[in-house]
């Protein structure tokens, strides 16, 4: 007999799952019955929120769904923040949760982990949520989840399994021999032809790519070269832009200079971006104006009509559309002053950067130049805010953080663990403020357990300095913005992790490079910044 729990593990294997992040409990113990003999690795975080962030970081560097397993009630509530961050950034995540058996789900009698309408709660933070009520349902709902991940706008999916059903006989349930194929929709040929004609008619086009177009980055660059036009990436697509290419504009689209470039162009080709305010209306200074002529490509037809309605809208996979438009245009080789326009936008934007942000970006540049293969995983902290404005990582690394979208604190460390597990051997730098790091500081224990060489840079200004500045700028007496940080080096050493303390940012790049050379986890506490 194969139980439903064992069948779930087998299905995860079929779908190519490499790692499950989770904390076992009495309400999920039966899901672990088949895991010990499986090739799937299990990673135990210190908190379910950490499990979700690890799954998120893993998904971002591998392109595969991150998988987490949580208990009913508090487990799902704890991972909800991570699910919402993934939903905001369109990151594929599969959350498998236990739930009380029928009759105990919403009885109000005080059963262990009882949560009123757990699935309804999950519906608000998931692409969809489903309760498995028979063993026969499991293969179908798994296929639905992966169809969302691979052929629709990705996001988190929650599948809950009643505790009693986990032990049920599922030996008779037919499983697929391999993962079913699910392909994203192709753009409409007629609308695609209209886009090609618009490209040929334009004299000052611009290409804008968002997180939904990451897989098409090479075709985006080739298309920009064909049209001789600037190529801009949103924060979630920043790492797709080659650092030194003359057409690349590795700056925030809401900055002066870059926004002027968009507003003055006679055609903006936007692929896989939601035109969200966290990119397009930084500091609430007013949103970027609508382009004169706008083409949008998005896999989500509803998103296609949000914020800016396009003159030509294509529903379909952004990477596929880029490839097809590029092929239809061919190597046009026009001369449209693309490099000059890109350089002018970069020059104008950088002139608006405050001195401290210029120094922060220079520090990030120094780390990148020392370790060009590094992935940078950030929290909401000053160094990351500056990087989101003007740091060009290049297409050999990664740059992602929680300072966009849902904007949670506590993201950097666990997401960096997931990233390190997803790309073994490649360096990963986690950047967190002293306040944000304390949200998930215990995940240093997971770093030690897994032995992943995550380098944690703590931007330690003794509290929530950006919030203090915000309060002071509005004439509010600062309150609640100075939580006392621990001695991070001693905390790291308590987990058996090496650490150092720096008085100021000088020497940070050298310290990171030395830590990467040691190929072991390390914490760098940068004080007085």
UniProtKB/TrEMBL annotation:
UniProt cross-references to InterPro entries, sorted A to Z: DHS-like_NAD/FAD-binding_dom, THDP-binding, Thiamin_PyroP_enz_cen_dom, Thiamin_PyroP_enz_TPP-bd_dom, TPP-bd_CS, TPP_enz, TPP_enzyme_TPP-bd
GO terms of molecular function: acetolactate synthase activity; flavin adenine dinucleotide binding; magnesium ion binding; thiamine pyrophosphate binding
UniProt keyword Nucleotide-binding present: no
Keywords: Thiamine pyrophosphate
Domain Thiamine pyrophosphate enzyme central: 193-325
Gene Ontology CC annotations of this record: acetolactate synthase complex
Cofactor: thiamine diphosphate
Pfam family, one: TPP_enzyme_C
Record's protein name: 5-guanidino-2-oxopentanoate decarboxylase
Taxonomic classification: Bacteria, Pseudomonadati, Pseudomonadota, Alphaproteobacteria, Hyphomicrobiales
């Amino acid at each position: 007999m194969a139980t439903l729990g064992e069948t779930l593990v087998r299905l995860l294997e079929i779908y190519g799952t490499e790692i499950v992040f989770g904390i076992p409990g009495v309400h999920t113990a039966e899901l672990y019955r088949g895991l010990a003999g499986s090739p799937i690795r299990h990673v135990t975080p210190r908190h379910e929120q950490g499990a979700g962030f690890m799954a998120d970081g893993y998904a971002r560097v591998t392109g595969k769904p991150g998988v987490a397993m949580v208990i009913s009630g508090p487990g799902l509530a704890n991972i909800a923040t991570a699910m919402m961050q993934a939903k905001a950034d369109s990151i594929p995540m599969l959350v498998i949760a236990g739930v009380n058996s029928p009759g105990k789900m919403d009885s109000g009698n005080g059963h262990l982990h009882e949560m009123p309408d757990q699935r309804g709660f999950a519906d608000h933070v998931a692409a969809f949520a489903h309760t498995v009520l028979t063993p026969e349902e499991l293969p179908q709902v798994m296929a639905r989840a992966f169809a969302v991940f691979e052929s629709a706008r990705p996001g988190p999916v929650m599948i809950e399994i009643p505790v009693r059903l986990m032990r049920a006989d599922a030996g008779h349930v037919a499983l697929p021999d391999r993962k079913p194929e699910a392909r994203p929709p192709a753009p409409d040929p007629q609308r695609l032809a209209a886009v090609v004609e618009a490209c040929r008619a334009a004299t000052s086009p611009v290409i804008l790519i968002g997180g939904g177009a990451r897989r098409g980055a090479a075709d985006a660059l080739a298309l920009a070269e064909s049209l001789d036009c600037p190529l801009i990436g949103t924060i979630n697509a920043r790492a797709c832009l080659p650092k030194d290419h003359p057409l690349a504009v590795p700056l925030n689209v809401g900055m002066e200079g870059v926004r002027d470039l968009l507003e003055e162009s006679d055609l903006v080709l936007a692929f896989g971006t939601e035109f969200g305010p966290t990119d397009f209306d930084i500091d609430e200074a007013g949103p970027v104006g609508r382009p004169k002529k706008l083409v949008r490509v998005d896999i989500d037809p509803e998103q296609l009509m949000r914020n800016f309605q396009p003159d030509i809208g294509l529903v379909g996979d952004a990477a596929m559309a880029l490839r097809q438009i590029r092929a239809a245009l061919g190597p046009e080789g026009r001369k449209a002053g693309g490099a000059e326009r890109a350089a002018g936008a970069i020059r104008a934007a950088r002139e608006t950067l405050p001195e401290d942000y210029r120094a922060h970006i220079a520090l990030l540049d120094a780390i990148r130049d020392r370790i060009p293969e590094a992935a940078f995983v950030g929290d909401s902290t000053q160094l990351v805010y500056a990087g989101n404005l003007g740091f060009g990582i290049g297409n050999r690394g990664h740059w992602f953080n929680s300072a966009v979208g849902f904007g949670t604190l506590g993201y950097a460390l666990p997401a960096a663990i997931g990233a390190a597990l997803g790309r073994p051997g490649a360096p990963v730098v986690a950047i967190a403020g002293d306040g944000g790091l304390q949200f998930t500081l215990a995940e240093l224990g997971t770093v030690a357990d897994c032995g992943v060489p995550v380098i944690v840079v703590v931007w330690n200004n003794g509290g929530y300095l950006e919030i203090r500045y915000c309060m002071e700028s509005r004439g509010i007496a600062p309150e609640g913005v100075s939580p006392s940080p621990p001695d991070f080096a001693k905390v790291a050493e308590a987990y058996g992790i090496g650490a150092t303390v720096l008085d100021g940012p000088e020497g940070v790049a050298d310290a990171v490079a030395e830590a990467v050379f040691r190929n072991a986890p390390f914490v760098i506490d940068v004080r007085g910044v």
